[in-house]
Amino acid sequence: MSSENLNNAAALTAEQINERKEAASFIDFKMVTFDLAGKDYGIDIMHVKEIAKAGRFTYVPNTAPFVLGVYNLRGEIIPILDLRIFFNIPVQPQDESKLQNLLILSIDDQIFGLVVDKIDKVIGVQKSTIQPPHPLFGDINIKYISGVVENNNRLYVLLDVLRIFAVKDKTEEAEDINTYYQENTAKLQMQKKLEGEVKPVQSATVQQPVVEKEPPKAEIDIKFISETLAQFKKFFVTEVNKSWIEFRYSDWEKEKNGGSTQLQSADDADAYLKPFWSTCSDKWWTKEYAESVKALLPENAAKTIVVWNPGCGKGMETYSLACILKEKYPHAIIKIYAQDVDLLCVSNAALLSVPAELANQWYAPYLTQKANGEYTFSPEIKESIMFEYHDCKNTNVLPMVDLIFARDVLSLCDESAQDAIITDFQEKIKGNGIIIVGDNEVLPAKYGFGEKTFGAITAYTKD
Question: Is the pTM of this model over 0.85?
């Protein structure tokens, strides 16, 4: 080869190197790639906390089929989901002792473990090369795909984990609600136009014009508020809470001081609902509230007191209830079925730490001090509670119960679900049992419950 050709080859090689460096500098998106049923997928690396191998997950009853259980990740209890089952991909029977490939994701301050067939590598690409999804690119629903991208002759389906885990940011919520207002404002304007028209009424002698009255502003505002509460907070306005919503509106108007009363954001919805939540929600109970609950509890000589506590949350309510039940019925065995749809809350509730200051409050007889000086509830209290991951809208295989303690739960269910749950209350509660719902909730008269009140708390009984 001549010296001129050698120089050209050297120049070409240097040019190729520069092109590769330039291309690498444009990488602005990295994804962790993995295999599901022989196909390549990717997840934005910003959501991947780590990768791991684990097995023997702790089974949680009454969960969806794709929830394999929970796992203790260095002291943190996390739910484990099988993506293959979630996407209806056939899964061969597994040896339970075999370790599974896990992607540990951090989504909106929540940690999840995803089981996949094989974890491949981290790949960097240019965002501009990511193409829109197409139904033919995968075996999964297109709404869970954010795009597809090719790298080294392999096509990767990029999963939208925010959509999979139903996470919305405030911008998206604002866009949703703006669209909602635009659509509904147009409908309302048309409705007003029609309502303002003169409509003839047929008569045997003469036709009289009738002008329909426009609904009061408050009625229109409350209608919009009700629908946006469902949009933002999954809070449903029905007979259960309608009186409170209407009562709250008058205060809301004063707070807005002549401004718009509509709920324009999730923060507005939170502000509107702030006075709604029951006393000591997500808090340890004060002595005054505990005594009010105790005063409502009926006399009961049964050897076992059975309680249903849907919507138990982080567990503070359930432990407080267990203590007051033990105080009211010292010789009975207490059994509390505590349920919630938040898997992390239910998983962590059994491990809930007890603040030292509770040892100087009414909780003191039900606490014990550990060797390290920390406090925990006595074995008798802990053993009285069974925390379960369960949605009370679904069938409950519970025994007949003496007490249903379901504060603020009904308002977070739509009207058909409310009807199913209250019907379940009717079937599950014993003849001498009571039902306690939220401070600002009522059980509609059509269900035929009786009432008794102590202070701000109302209990419902079978007539």
Answer: no
